[in-house]
Amino acid sequence: MNKAVNDGVWSGTWVAQRLGVELVGDDELPGLLGLALRRNPKRAHLLVSNVLGKHVPQSPSVVYGHGFALGRRVRELLGSEQADSAVVLGYAETATGLGHSVADGLGSAPYLHSTRRPVPGVAPAGGFEESHSHATSHLLLPEDPGLLASDGPLVLVDDEFSTGNTVLNTIRDLHARHPRKRYVVVALVDMRSAADADRLAEFARETGTRLDLVAAASGTVRLPEGVLEKGQELVARHEGAAPGRAVPPRTEVAVPGRFQPGFLPAQRGRGRVTCLGLEWPDGVPDGGRHGFTPAHRDRLEGALPAMAAQVAEALPTDADRVLVLGFEELMYAPLRLAHELERIVPAEVRYSTTTRSPVLAVDDPGYAIRTRLAFPAHDDPADGPGERYAYNVAGQGFDAVVAVVDSAADTPALHAPDGLLAQLAAHTPHVLLAVVPSYVPGAAGPQGAPSSRERSAMLPEPLRGPAFSSYAPDEVGWLLQDLSDVTLEAPTEEREEAIQSGGAHYAESLPVEYQPSEQYQELFHTALEASAARLARAVGVVTETVLTERSPSPVLVSLARAGTPVGVLMRRWARYRHGVDLPHYAVSIVRGRGIDANALRWLADRYAPSDVVFVDGWTGKGAIARELAQAIREFEETDGVTGFDPEIAVLADPGSCVRTYGTREDFLIPSACLNSTVSGLISRTVLRADLVGRHDFHGAKFYRDLAGADVSNAFLDTVSGRFAEVADDVDAAVKELLSADRTPTWEGWAAVERISEEHGIHDVNLVKPGVGETTRVLLRRVPWKILARAGAGADLEHVRLLAEQRGVPVEEVDELPYTCVGLIHPKYTRGATGADGRAVAV
């Protein structure tokens, strides 16, 4: 096997030559692994990962990318349905960040990692032993004990799969408590022997389970006779030869060799330590010790740009090399922070973490652990005081180190003269300390944090027209902040590339407002006149259903902006038929990031949450319906406010995603034909960390300059002008609807998944079903092609016209469950895979 990598020297050569240890297997192994000697009586050698971000500082994009890619492979293995019901379990301490990254790649999976830190008041839901480790006992402390009781697949993630004993111990313990049918084991490297593999296979046969393995590379370690004794002798010899430690610094550079440390205290002196007040999002756990949900992940994603900007601002302007250093089990939060920092600063950013693992340091390019910082434990560990370590930090030329710890570890020992911060300051001129609040299940929140009511009181009153929007002030109050003076628009193609590549979220910018041609606007007016009665009937049906089933005095809360014209129309119907003026507000919801929690706090402080009815225009595949349900659950967890009903009331539900609707037909709702000029001149909502703070509403723009093209009120007046003629029909339709089985079938979602696979897109977010969503693709995205149901008539005239103007083909398809489906161009997707799962050039 070729062991020459990078600079021509494999970082396992030193151990291999002296102990006779060999790695045999895939060609990728030398790039993934080096070798070092443990200071451990149970095992001589240590496989040192170059891509884990534990012992070896590495680019955070490389570290995160390896875990995320493994998660995508697990999703392909399980299929969408099983993947969406999976739970991911990572191992402390080395694989906590890796497991979290795998969960991100898997998609919607909740994540939990084992821990060696007991938490008072939290009962263990399980535990197991890691026999070869220096610290063996693992605890499982989920906030929700039901997390491990589900019957979906359990995905177990470790950095290396050496014997399989730890995984087998875990599975046996959990299977005895909560049997399930399927397990997937994930590791960066699979180094089991044939006998080790047989033990897992035998367990699967005994229990009737399926057990799969996913690894980036595989091989075995060949160990000669007497390797343990030889290793212990070698460690003892070189520990004795290592330079003595000064306090501070307690830096060990053992066995001088060709590598010359560049920033020892004698050369540079003590650096400066600065404490950084990191704006961590309230209620988001610092990691997976007690469980981490997809909603937590989305909230963290939204906060990362602002936190990274804080760090970047605090860094010296001349810093060329920056290390973000995590803390033992706290791997994911600093990894994501480093990943975001890497995107925005010109410096070279590296990431690693401190560790409990005692390893010999040898200053030789053929050895994986070049230098070692030793310092006292600073988190009141269960196993008592002892040493902790930071490897390959001293002497690596870092101009700044950002040390990230949780608040439980921000103790006097951390700041002591021989503590971690002093050790770091001895080897780099700038040390930043960022503290993440330790999450404690059931706690009310960080000490001193404002309550939900107090945060509500900080918020402004709703924006209203004519100062914000062209709607009358009594028609709707916008729970948004006005960003009209901020330039947010980006060219469609640039925006699409950034969104699909993961470089930006769609809510961080706005598309340039596309003003359709005169011919198209004429088509809008024709379509509006033709469909006005049909729309009025749907408005009446959905409003009467809400008044009958949901609340006699509902508070209408439309999802801006597509839901807002519908909310106004429902309010007008209630006034027309019942003489009541219903409160109506518009709030922001962002796919992948949830609903505006501050808007919910404002509403909960003024109304009974059970009276709130969320309103939208239509359902496509049901993504927003799912998003809202998850966001409400997350809000209940973080704020303790219950009663909000997450089901959306819509005019049209062609995807069969909700129970409260005006119709399930897929027809043209003319408000989908235009952008802001049919929605009160309001833009899409914006959620960007540098513009929206933790106590702010999401933002939006008011396009006052488009007033001459505004048809918002003409749309409302045309539809509400037909209320009288459809009133009797509405009564009959509601009577029939209330006695019908309206259980959502989610057939739209299933259709979208099928279309995604059939057309080789492999991303349901690029498939937009229904007339309304297809129209939006043509107006705001980069359309690839349109699928139209064979025989569809007038409802598709505007779609065909827009498609012709943009040069987009329209393909007729038999048995399409929607009138049409818009496909967004997948050409911007980076890291795309072909039908066989292999990477393809894009």
Count of β-strands: 33
Instruction: Using the CA coordinates, give the radius of gyration.
Output: 29 Å
Q: Tell me the number of helical segments per DSSP (H or I, 4 or more residues long).
A: 24
Structural class: alpha/beta
Low-confidence stretches: 1-6, 131-136, 242-269, 444-449, 828-842
Distance between the termini: 32 Å
Q: If you average the pLDDT, what whole number results? A: 83
* Percent of sequence in beta strands: 15-25%
Can you tell me the overall shape? elongated
Q: Helix share of residues?
A: 25-40%
Major sheet description: 7 strands, mixed
Number of domain units: 4
Describe the structure.
The protein has 842 residues and is α/β, with parallel strands linked by helices. Helix content is 34%, strand content 19%. Strands 19, 23, 24, 25, 26, 27 and 28 form a seven-stranded mixed beta sheet that branches. A six-stranded mixed beta sheet has the order 1-10-9-8-4-5, sandwiched between helices.
Throw out a few tags for this protein.
24 helices, alpha/beta, elongated, disordered N terminus, Rossmann fold, 6-stranded mixed β-sheet
Brief summary:
This protein is α/β, with parallel strands linked by helices and 842 residues long.
